[in-house]
Structure formats: C-alpha cells, structure tokens
What does this fold into?
Amino acid sequence: METVEILTKVKNNEISVEEAESYFRRQPFEEMGYAKLDLHRKVRCGFAEVIFCSGKADEHLLGIFKKLVETDGEVFGTRASEHQYEMIKKEFPEVEYDKISRILKIEKQDKERIGKISICTAGTADIPVAEEAAQTAEYFGSNVDRIYDVGVSGIHRLLSKLDVIQSANCVIAIAGMEGALASVIGGLVDKPVIAVPTSVGYGASLNGLSALLTMINSCANGMAVVNIDNGYGAGYMATQINRLAEK
Amino acid sequence: METVEILTKVKNNEISVEEAESYFRRQPFEEMGYAKLDLHRKVRCGFAEVIFCSGKADEHLLGIFKKLVETDGEVFGTRASEHQYEMIKKEFPEVEYDKISRILKIEKQDKERIGKISICTAGTADIPVAEEAAQTAEYFGSNVDRIYDVGVSGIHRLLSKLDVIQSANCVIAIAGMEGALASVIGGLVDKPVIAVPTSVGYGASLNGLSALLTMINSCANGMAVVNIDNGYGAGYMATQINRLAEK
Amino acid sequence: METVEILTKVKNNEISVEEAESYFRRQPFEEMGYAKLDLHRKVRCGFAEVIFCSGKADEHLLGIFKKLVETDGEVFGTRASEHQYEMIKKEFPEVEYDKISRILKIEKQDKERIGKISICTAGTADIPVAEEAAQTAEYFGSNVDRIYDVGVSGIHRLLSKLDVIQSANCVIAIAGMEGALASVIGGLVDKPVIAVPTSVGYGASLNGLSALLTMINSCANGMAVVNIDNGYGAGYMATQINRLAEK
Amino acid sequence: METVEILTKVKNNEISVEEAESYFRRQPFEEMGYAKLDLHRKVRCGFAEVIFCSGKADEHLLGIFKKLVETDGEVFGTRASEHQYEMIKKEFPEVEYDKISRILKIEKQDKERIGKISICTAGTADIPVAEEAAQTAEYFGSNVDRIYDVGVSGIHRLLSKLDVIQSANCVIAIAGMEGALASVIGGLVDKPVIAVPTSVGYGASLNGLSALLTMINSCANGMAVVNIDNGYGAGYMATQINRLAEK
Amino acid sequence: METVEILTKVKNNEISVEEAESYFRRQPFEEMGYAKLDLHRKVRCGFAEVIFCSGKADEHLLGIFKKLVETDGEVFGTRASEHQYEMIKKEFPEVEYDKISRILKIEKQDKERIGKISICTAGTADIPVAEEAAQTAEYFGSNVDRIYDVGVSGIHRLLSKLDVIQSANCVIAIAGMEGALASVIGGLVDKPVIAVPTSVGYGASLNGLSALLTMINSCANGMAVVNIDNGYGAGYMATQINRLAEK
Amino acid sequence: METVEILTKVKNNEISVEEAESYFRRQPFEEMGYAKLDLHRKVRCGFAEVIFCSGKADEHLLGIFKKLVETDGEVFGTRASEHQYEMIKKEFPEVEYDKISRILKIEKQDKERIGKISICTAGTADIPVAEEAAQTAEYFGSNVDRIYDVGVSGIHRLLSKLDVIQSANCVIAIAGMEGALASVIGGLVDKPVIAVPTSVGYGASLNGLSALLTMINSCANGMAVVNIDNGYGAGYMATQINRLAEK
Amino acid sequence: METVEILTKVKNNEISVEEAESYFRRQPFEEMGYAKLDLHRKVRCGFAEVIFCSGKADEHLLGIFKKLVETDGEVFGTRASEHQYEMIKKEFPEVEYDKISRILKIEKQDKERIGKISICTAGTADIPVAEEAAQTAEYFGSNVDRIYDVGVSGIHRLLSKLDVIQSANCVIAIAGMEGALASVIGGLVDKPVIAVPTSVGYGASLNGLSALLTMINSCANGMAVVNIDNGYGAGYMATQINRLAEK
Amino acid sequence: METVEILTKVKNNEISVEEAESYFRRQPFEEMGYAKLDLHRKVRCGFAEVIFCSGKADEHLLGIFKKLVETDGEVFGTRASEHQYEMIKKEFPEVEYDKISRILKIEKQDKERIGKISICTAGTADIPVAEEAAQTAEYFGSNVDRIYDVGVSGIHRLLSKLDVIQSANCVIAIAGMEGALASVIGGLVDKPVIAVPTSVGYGASLNGLSALLTMINSCANGMAVVNIDNGYGAGYMATQINRLAEK
It folds into this structure.
C-alpha cells in the first residue's frame, strides 16, 4: 500500500535506489534467531503479538517477553506454567499470573472495554478454558459476561440465563464430554456463536475429539468451531466480532 | 432347569440312557444348513426370532420366512428391499411392506398392546429409523407415541412436548448430525432413555459415528446407546423395559 | 420476555387463566406431523427458516416449501437435486435453481444488501461450496466478493487480491485437499475468518477430514471452522457478523 | 406444571405480578458461581445430584459437598482421589471412601433396597468399574448380585451362573479387551442388558474403544451401551429399570 | 541350498563361469511384463500360485490363467466376477465358477484330502467368506467341516456342535458385526483358531474394522487374525497347519 | 462328553439323582470371589492357566499364584512388575523373574521340549516381546530359535538366516514401526507365520497400530496376526502348531 | 529479484511511478474467473502448469486446455475421464489419451530425455498409478525404467532386478495392501526413494491408508512419501531430483 | 556384483569350493546377539550406520557405540537421553551431546561439506526436530541454512527469506499444528521439498497426525513427507539429493 510513497521518493531522489530496495526487503519483524517477533502486528491487525508460553525454553520466553514489554508496554502470555511465572517474576515483579487460566501478563492500567461477549460453560471443569477466553477478550478490550455450569443435563439452568446471553454481540459456548451445549445455545440466540470443545471427559471423549465432532456437525445456524481447549482463539475472534459491532 | 425331571425319568426307567443323552444333545433350533433358526426363542426370551433381511439370498429369505410363519403364525423382517417384498408376496400375498421403515411382516390381528414408549427424532430425515423402532415395539406389544422433528436447533418444539414424553415408561431419542437431542432429553426426563444415532448428516458426521460419540459421552444420566440406525434394537429393548414396568 | 405483559393481562382479567396457560403452552411452530416448521424464526433470529432439501421425500419437501412461501413470500432451499427442482417447478413455475450450488429458491425482488463478505476458494473444484455460501449470504442481505482459485501452491494469486479481501467485514476461506489456504488468509487479514473445509481431494484427504483438521489446528488468529462442504453455515454466520458490523 | 397454580394466585391477588414473574425466572438450582447445583433434581428425577469429583478444585468440591449434605442429609461422589477423601474427612469425619471404586459418600442408615440387578465382569481387572456400578445402584436403592470374572475365554464359568443372572430385572455386563462378554450375556438372558466397555487391555484395545465398538455392534437383542468405564451411568440406568419393574 | 552343487560343477569345468553366473542370476519366475508369475512357488512352498482376480484386466487375467494351466494342469482364482467367468469360459469351457465364494477354477480329478479343518460362521451372511476359506482348503488338500450360523446371540447352537469343531486340527472362526464368535470358540477348543472378521454389519461395524478389533483383542488363547473377508488367507494357513498335523 | 457315564451311574443307582444333578452344575473352576480360576484348563486344553499380572492387586495376585502353585507345582505369570516380583518372592523365594520379558515363574525341572519354533525380530527394541513369546513357548515345551535384529532395512541379515528360520514348524515374526518384516518372512518360508506388531516406533506408528495394519494387510500367504506386543499369544499358538507337527 | 531493475528504471524515468506500481501489482497468472492460470510457472519452476482434470466442468476444462496449448504448445492433464477425452478431441483431434494412466495430453515431438528414474510396483494392480508417474516423468524429460510386479511376497523377483533399480538417480516404489515394498527397496538402494501408497487392497487396507502408514513409518533411510495413488506427485519430484543429478 | 570374481578364483583353484561357499554365506554384518550391525553400509550406501538410541539398554547402546567407533572412527546417535550421554561419556570423554536435538556423537575433524540444504520451521517449538535434521545433514557432509519461525500466520517473514531458501538444492519444511508451511514453501520454490510434520500442537493436532495429513494432501508439486518428528530421515534424504546435485 505504501509502494507509491516509496517510489515517489525514489523518483525525487529523496532516497537512493539502494535504500528503497532495502526497504522492500526489510520485514516488519524482529529477528531473534530462535524467533521472529511480529512487531508490526498491532498496527496491521489491531492486536499485539501474544506469547504461547507452553514448551518455550526459559531463555527464549524471557527474551520474547522483554522485547514485547519494551515495544508495547504490556504483554500477554497463554499456557504458562508456574515455573515460568516464577522465572519471569524475577525480572518483572509486576507480572500477574492466574493459576486457573494459566495466563501470565503485564497489563496497562485503565484500558477501556467496549461491547459485550457472553461466555458459557457446560460444567465447572470447563472453567480454565473459559477463563482463557474471557481474559483474552478483556485484555483486548471487550466486556465479558461469565455464565458457568449451564450444561444440557439440567437445561433450566441455561434457559434462566437466556436474556443475559442474548444481549451480547457474540457468544462463546464451551463444553467437553458430548459438547451438546453449543448446539442448544446456537438454537436459542441470534448472534454468532463460537464453540470451543474441551478435553474434559473420559473414555470415548477421546480427549475432546468427540466434543469437537459434535460441534462441527451441529445443526444450529451461526456457529463455528475452534480447536479443543482453545479459549484464546475463541476470545480473540469474539473480540474481532465485538469490535465490528461496536465500531 | 429341566435336568432333574429328565434324570428322574432315567432313574425310573421311563426313558433310556440313550434317549436322555440325546435329549441333552438336542438343541432348540431348526437346522437349515445355511441357517439355524432359534425356534425356542419365543419361549426363552418372550420374543420370536426376527429376520434381518438385508443381504439374504432370495431362497434363504423365503425358506426362513416360511419356517417362521409355520411356527408362529406371524413373522417380522427388518431392512427388507422392495425386491424382497415382491418376491415374498408371490407366496404370501398377505405380507405387508412399509417403504419408509423397510419392515416386511405378516402380523396376527388384534394383538394387545401395553404401557407406552415415546419415540423422538431430531429431524424429518430420522423418521425411517424411528419407524423401525416404533413398529418393532408395536409388533412386540407396546404402545408408542411418535414425536418427530424436535431437534435442539429449535428447542421450544421439544419443550412443548415434554408432558407426552415424560409419561412413557421408556424414551427412544433418535438423532443424526451432532446427536445432541439425546443429551437434552436425558436431562429432562426421569425414565430410561435409549439413544439411537443415525447416519443422517454429511462431512464430519462420519456416517453417524459423530452422533454415536456424542451420545456415548453424554453427561445426562439414565441413557444408553445402540448402533447407528439400529431402530430395531432400540424398539426391542424399550419393549423389554416397558414390559417390566407393566408387569 | 412477554411474561409481564401476559401476567398483567391476567391480573386485569383481560384474559382468563386458561387462555394465559394455553399461551405459555403454545409453541411458535407449525406442526406438520413429519416436520415442525419454526415459523417464528424470522422474528426470533432475523433469518427465516431454510430447507435442507437433501433426502426429503417429495411430498414432504413440497409441503414445507408451500408453507414457507405462504408465510414469508419467499423460500430458500439448499442441497436440492434436479429432480426436486422439476417437482417443485410444477407448482411454482417461478422457482429458480442453480446447478452449481444446488440452491432452489423463490426470492423477493429488490431486496437491499449491505456491507461486504469476501469468499475465497483454493481451487476451481471448491466453487460449488463457495456458491452455496455466497448465495446464502446474498439471500440474507449481504454483498459478496468472489475470489476463486487462489490456493497456496501459487501464493502470488492470493497476494494480488489482498486489498479486496481485506476490505470485507468477514472472510470465508474455502479449501479442500490440505486446506492450507485458510491459515494463510488468517495470517493476512484482520477480520474474522470462517474456514470451510471441502471434500475435494483424494486418498488421505479422507473426504475433507484432513482439511478440517488443518483448519481446526490453524495457528492463525481469528478463525473458526464449520463442517465439511458447509457453505450454507459459513454464509449464514458471515451474514450475522456483517449485519453486526453494519448496524 | 405448576403454572396454573401460580396464575390462579396472581389472579386472586395472593401474589403480585412481580412476585409471579420472579417465580418464573427463579430456577431450581443453587448458584455457586463456579457451579449451579440442581437441588430440585431429586424431586424431578427421583435421584439426588451426584458429584463427579475428578478434576474439581478442593474448595469447589468441599463447597458442593457441604451444600448437598445440608440439602439431602447424604451425598454420593464418584471418581474421588485419596487426597480428596482426606480433605473432605477433615470436615466430615463420617465420610466413607472405597479405594477400589473410588466412591466417596455419606449415606443414611437403613435405606430400603428393592428388586435385583446382576453385575457381571469379564475379568478381575474390571472390578473397579463394576463396583462403581454396584455401589451406585445400592445407594439409589437396588439390590445387587456381583458375578465377577466370567469372561468368555472360559465360558463354563458364565454358564454356571446363568440362573442367578437371569433372575435380575436388569443385567450389567462389564468387559474390556474384546468385550465379547456382553454379546454372550445378551444372547442368554431375556432382560435388558446394559453393556459397559472398560479400558482394561493393551495394544489394539485403544483404551476401551475396541470393547465399545464390539458392544455397539452386538448382534444380541436387548442391549445398549454406556461410555468406557462408566460404571456410574450403568448403575443409574439399571436402577431406573429396576424401579420400573418393582413399581 | 544348491550353491555347493553349482560350484562343484564350475570347479570340474562341467559348466562355465558364465553359465554359473547366469544361473545365480536367473530367477524362478515367468516375466510377463505386467506380471511376474512365481512358477517355482509350488516347489518352494508346496502351494501353487493362486490368482487374485479382482481388478485384473481381461487380457492380463487370461494370460495368467493360461500360463498357470499350462504349468500345473489346474488353476485357482479368487474374487472373480461373473464377467471374468464368462470371459475365461470361452477359452476354457471346463472352468468352474461358484457364485457364492466367487471362486473360479480348473481342478484336477481325484485329488486326495487329508486331516480336517472346521469352519464356523456367526451368521448366514458370512457364508461367502466361509466358502472361500473352505474351497481354498479343499483345493489344497484338506477335509473341511462346515458349521454355519452359530453366532453367540444363541450360544446353544454353537455348544451343540462342539464335538465336531473340537475334532479338527485347526478351526476357522468367521464373524462380522461384533465378531464375538471367535473369542468364544477360542475359549472352547484346544486347537489353533484362525479368526476372520467379515464386513457384514452396518453403522459402527466400520465395514469389518470393529470385528477385526474384537478378534485382535481377544482374551482367548491360541488365536490369530487375518484381514477382513480374507477367507482365502485363512484357508491357506489352516491347510499349512493341517498338513503339519497329518505329516 | 462324560454324560453317558454319569447317566449310566444314575441308572445303576451308583449315584443319586441329586449327586448327578450337582455334578452337572459343578464347574471346573475355583471360585475366589475376585477371580474364578480355571483349574481344569490343563486337562481341557493341555495348557495350564497363566496369570496376566499387570494391574492385579497384590493380594489378588498372591492368592492366585498360591492356588496355581498348589494345583500344578509350577506357575507362569506375564507382564509382572518388579514390585510384584519382590512381593511374591517373600512367600516363594524360588520364584524367577526376567526383567526384559517381565515373566515371573516357578518352573519344574527337566521338562522335555519338542520340535522347533523360530522367533525373529526386526530390531533390538522388539526383544522384550520376543522373549515373552520365546519363554512362553519354552515353558509349554517347545524348542525355540531366536533370530533378532533382522529388519528389512538391511535384508541381507534376514536372508543369511533363512535356513534356520525355514527349519522350524512355525515362525513368529515380530516388528514395530512399519512392520514389513512379517510380509518378507511370509514370502520366504512355507510354514505358518504368526505376526506380532510391537509398539516400538514414534509419530505415525500410533503405538503399534500401523504395524498391526501392515501385518493384517500382508499379501504374503500363511500368516495371521495377534495383538500389539502380544508375545504370549504368539508363543502359545506357535506351541499348539508345534505340538500338532510333532504329534 | 527484479526489484532493482524496476527501481532503476523508475529512477531513470524510463518508466513512470504508475507503471512501476502497476508492475508490482500485476500477477503472473491468467484470470479466467473460475480459474487463475499460473502461466509464469514454467519460468519460475521449470515445469509448466498441469491440469488435474477430475471433477472439472466441461467448459472449464476446455477453456483451461485451450489457454495452456496456446501458451506452451503442449499440455498435460491427469485423472481425465473418457468423456473428457471425447469432449477435448472434438476441438483438438491430436490429443492423446491413455486409458490405464488416465493421462490426456498434447505433447511436442522430439523432446529430449535425461538421466533415469526407476519405477517399481508391488503388483499388477498398481500399474495405473505407476504409469501416471512414469508418463509424468517422461513428459517433463526423464528417462524411466519400469519394473512391475516385484512385491515382497516373492522377494526373489525384486532381488533379480536390483542392478537396474540401483542404476537410477531416483526410485519410485509403488504398493498397495501392506506397502512393504517401499521399505525393502529403501534398504537395498542408496538413492532417494519416493514411496507411493495405492488404494489397491480390501478390508483393513482402508483404501490405501494402511499402506501410507507403513511407508511413513518405514525404518529405511532416504525415503519420503506422497499421497495415496499420487503417481503424478512422485513423477514430478523424481524429475526434480533427476534434473539436479544430471545438471 | 562380485560373483564373477569369486567364481573365477574357484575355477583357477585360487580358493576352495568350501571357501567360496562360505563367502556367499558370510553376511556383511557384525552379529552381536541383541543386534546385527551393518558394517558394510557405508560402502553400500555411502552413509555409515546411525544409532537410534531411544529405548536401547545401556549395555546394548555402549556395545554398539564401541563397535561403530572402532570401525569408522566416528559415530552418530539420535534421540539420546541425558542419562545415555552420561553413561557413554564415562568411556568416551570426547563424546558430544546437544540437548536440543538430542544428538550424541563423536565426529572426525575437518570433514568437508558440499552444496546446500535449507531447513525452515514454522515456529520456535519445531527447532528440536530442525536441529536433528540439520546436524544429520552436516554430519553426512551437507551445508545447511537454518530459517526458523517463518510460519504462515505471518507470511511476510517467510517471503523475506525466499532468496536464501530458493538457493539450496533441497528444502526441508518443518511444522506442527496445521502444517501449512510446507504447502506454501512447495508453491514458492522449484527444488524438492521434504516435509516434516511435528508433534507440536494440542487438541486436534493429534500429536502431529493432523500436520502429517496436511502435508500428504498438499496441492504443491515436488514435495514428499517423512514421519512425525523425523528430522533424521529428512536430513538423510536431503543429503542424498544434495550429493546428487553436487556430483
């Protein structure tokens, strides 16, 4: 998009051919050898880069954490272990860690939140995934309503919350085992529903694959599915929708 | 159970050792070479033998059909093709065939029916399986309520029928695609629920496997599952339960 | 929501207790025996009921078609066969049928369309699914941009269309085989992406399951997935998002 | 069901419109934030709510345990760890824990038991699942006969117990590995059989999936299947059937 | 094994170095371009080469058929279509075709048969696979007992045949659906059992995969499994065992 | 089989009707509550009962161990842990334990061995399974040749051992990863081959499932397959064949 | 790569800023609406675009065919049906069609071929896939040796051809059923091996998935795998390697 | 190949018949009981034998290590644990161990490297697999370019490295999760691409199976796939190709 500007500068001899060529070659990422941080992401997508902490070596995680704090003044990491929290805290005593959602973050104060996202879970055991979704959405500026333990085996619990759920711009439905909650919500609301299967269950739940299949095959309209336990992905997409609605 | 009787007769020389031995050896089935018909089944289990017609050669099907009509005065076949119907009709003009359920039968008049079974389907496309279940249950002497097209994408349709469903001794929940109907019914009624996944669907429905997994993983209490499209099996078991309840 | 109104009328003796009770019992659907048409759906969700034609018996399809035309003055059916088109055309000569998308519809003239949805396919063979999505979105009032045959094996084709794709409120990414298109689009745009795996492919494509897994595991942010070949579902959800954005 | 009563009271000014509306809104569950306890379940279904302990945080488990003891004077938890037992015992020294079945409970004295359920296992390793089923059934008021280690590799062991098995109202057949026991029992008894696949086995047993498939495909009549290792589900449904039979 | 002989001839100048080298290079097969017929197989293994007819082009099948008749004076083909039978019959009017087993053969008269193999099926629909096994075993010189339709849903049928089954050197157990027959036979006989899963069944039978898993996981001793519907493979291996026993 | 004898005694008043009836009822197993030991197995099948130790509680294992030593003077356990070995050794200091095969046994001295079984592995990592097979076969009286690490990636190793392999009555082919060894051996020998897939491998080996599929689909004749890592099952069946051959 | 050239031209006013910008935007493909033909592919990759004919509408196939003939003077299509051949022949009477490989092409005369690729199949039924590979490699300028029907069930056939196979720059190993051929070849040659699983087989071959797993898990070094039946892909990559070797 | 030489010596009485026979029998491997080391491999294939350390017993690993160091003066082991490193270091203090790639080796100094292989990863977590590939290729004499963290969610990172990637003789593309990187690279380069799926991911990544399926189904030309996490296999085959190109 900025090609015209650069070319004009070349033509006007404001920059050299070499400078222009290097510009076209320069990429909007920070080369760290083991990682290439996408620092232009916030500009390009409206969302800063987030760290998937799981499995990262300590020195790599620390390096990436530092670079992102420097760049943005805040940072958001998912799937962090307690060990990683302790390790980061030594350098950044202000870092916050939530054991349930396993989110590790430094967040700016007084950020504004807009719109609303409803996050529903079938059971208590789905709450870690729900909190990953909720805190992601809040970090990126959405208001969130939490409606937990409204699974279909006692459907009156869900029905009693319909007004709240329906009032959001987007609904996240989180369930393990047979994952039927998503279909039922999909049939009851007129907003986009993002379904998140969880690995909660045993036996033929196949670590969440059964719930995933349930949700993918749902006969409800206006629903799409993310990976098993992917609360982050649901919170991110819900925020995109929420922002569009509040634009 | 009859060992004592036979042995007493031996002791009293009412029958010879050879006769007794042959008795112990004789099996309660009709040897037809290609089949061994279980003619004592009605006595042993309270249900006459049923013919699974699919894939049977014409001469085999006809042979078995004849033998069962002779023995019981009626006969019940599932998964029959139109060709099989035409073939049987030549010898048994009174035979009845239902294209939807693919049931082929000769049934005695004025059989009594007891109790009640509710049969629910998620959609219109599940009706062939539901009719296989319903007509099986009726043949074996149960009353049946049909509640069709009450899938979870419009849950008010199901809720409006709850009284009817709840009044049965046993409920059969039939659904393809994501199969969530069974879980929702399981959470709403206090009777045993037999869940039947169907092969209705496309893509990741995997010909009914997804619905089967949904139902097996259901968090609802009091539910068990039969094979994909197995309306007959559900109707049979529901009748067993219905008979126990009406005993 | 209307409980207070009804109760107030009861209190004021404007309606009898019996009438009120019947009101609470009455469901917003048309009971047709083989189907329960959700006629309040348009009011409740903003989208009229759509017919999934595949596998419906002629008389059932015709009955449902008639009822919906009566109610809404227009009707939209997916997965219709040519036979079904011929059958419906006898009663409704104005019905339109598109062989590619297999959509069968009667549509009101001069309906307004708002916003924009971009629909991308990896190859030419994915076009039937794309057209199902596109025509669904158009029927429900969205503008659509079609960007076909931009699969990753020649990524310059996709990059050349980025401006168009990026200008929509929502993007639908459709691909069979390995399904990588969705991830690449997800990394390039900052709008919600709905990924549709298709059954295009052979061998280990497993009739679309491989593409589905690719999309579900995508490392791209802001993406969710619908069932294999489910163009309708993607077009529906994209319209929900598009409406929210244009509100 | 109680709508008429409430409406009558409104009409008679016995309660205000606001009170009535709040009644319709109030749900028969205890909102605990992390859980919504279904306290009306015993009334609605005849079975009190049961706790699935696995994976519950200590404070959540304790909170739920307390609430249920308060409400019902007894409580039943499945899949409890020894740690959870120790934790609960500090507040409820009377709590009982069975290491084999992992059941954690406080049970009222002198509860009556009715009818009979037969519980069969293929091997010794299936006993934990069988005990979960047996103790569930006993807690809810059924008599239970345990017939363990009667797998088909030595079928005379099973045949020697047929009289006992046959005398129950319902049979639970529990097996891992190839799961053939359920089919054989299904062919020998005329009562409903609930089949429970277990994760006992190795290699191609796929953690119980093979046994599940065996049972779902069974050619025996009158059999349905619950999830792998789901002794609780089998015990629950068997009790429903047993109660119907003893009604 | 014959290296010493050849080398001795070289040393004694009975054959040239070149001849010897060519000997080591010459392979015991007939090169036909599209096929390499293993004509030494009968010498090496005691069993002549067999033709798997399915999918072979007419000219290829005919060419191979001719070559084998020339070499051995007889030939045995499996999975032949009626079309292939008609095609071969034009050149070999004496060829025999069995529609059930789909075996196409020219067989020498008065071949001797030894020992005994028992072949059991669970149902009538398994007979095509059983006949492939039986006729293979007979062609290669084994006596065969056929015991059909003795599935576990009526186990008295199987028990009544135990003496016959037990008297063989090897038992072939053939079953589709849940495949439990193999385990039961495995527990009742003390001879090697070859289990053959069949594709008979529907729904979760997965075209025989479920029966295969059942058999592979069998807790019975002395049993091994061949591919789904592979009657030929079972008949072949049973003959090897039968020959060893009658040696 | 002994029915005639018993009946004759009844007729002759050598035993009472009651005694005879009790005889027919008495089962040839030891009821231990948690287990039903098949003590007549050695008579019936020629092989004493073997203990699958894995997962048995200490007291159960010890009880079974004791009973079998009492009955047979020797005992053979598979899949035993070191802990179980230590536990048993306290009561039976003469017990032997092999860490590689995990076999735990007390064996009589100077048992005779007959015939020969060849046991081949693809790699070094398959040796534990091979030793389970070998020691099982030896315990039950077969001579065994061990040919280890002859996988197909260096096929000259296998070819150099062909004479040895071919001289056995039965061959056991053991391989993980892609499991191709079994097919190659199947094509080279004219004796029955029992193929054992192992869980050796990583990634798409799916814990042995890939090797199992390879072996089941083998185009080699005279081969059948047992469960993943089931050395015991292969050793048992090979002994049956070896005994038949040496009869 | 050409950025510097363009920029230099801009600087020198040889082209306008607008022209340069349009250059950067112009993509090397032909926009046909339903397809975007990659006409620069031959320059970029050294291989012209190939048509995957399967599933293309007649008018689309014809349009693409025409455009490619115009551009390159020749064209190569895979997976063409006889109908498509007839349709194309009307406009291009010189088009050639091979029924076995289903290749449809117009090829320039007297193209040079270099190096050598060996193509081996396990059986006769794998020849269609082998011919797709062979003719692809030949079209793109490689010499090909065909070695068919050398499967592992008679390994001497393969060993007799080793010199020929070993003399190529690259080997393609094609096999269905258990796919063991690829591993054996991989262990015998020191050139890169491209393994192609085929859908030849039945039962547990799972339409080629088992052969694919076998090949992916191969313990042989220097081997990689393409999709089931993907002869084209193997021929293409083998040509890349052959060209590198002959450079 | 040396048959003629040996035979000529026999003819000339330079060696005895017995010696010659023994020569033909002697195999080019070291028999170690638990292993058969392929010491002629380096001559036959140009690559010395490599040790797959995982799961080898200490004494076996040490024995093999010693023998290979003796033979070749260097040795290369993959998938070694730290424990194995410590164990080997006691006898070979010069051994080197890399924790990331888990490679354990003794390598000769000053080995020459030729050509170039590019190794790309989608993310930081794929680096262990990439290093296994890179160090394998380097050990066998290839130059390697490492391009890490260029996954498709930020495709500009990949595009910025295209010149480097394109300049290699062969490209290795390594990715977990959805594995789309391989397809994109396959579409951008004109060199053979070896795709390596990794087990990086969670939920529906199925431990790398999803990435494997993605890569196998890739629509890109000139790509083949190795097992999940098989960096060694990719490095080996890439070296074969690199050597051919630099010949």
In short: Chains B and G do not touch (no CB pair under 8 Å). The two ends of chain B are 23 Å apart (CA to CA). DSSP finds eleven helices and eleven strands in chain B. Chain B has a mean pLDDT of 89.
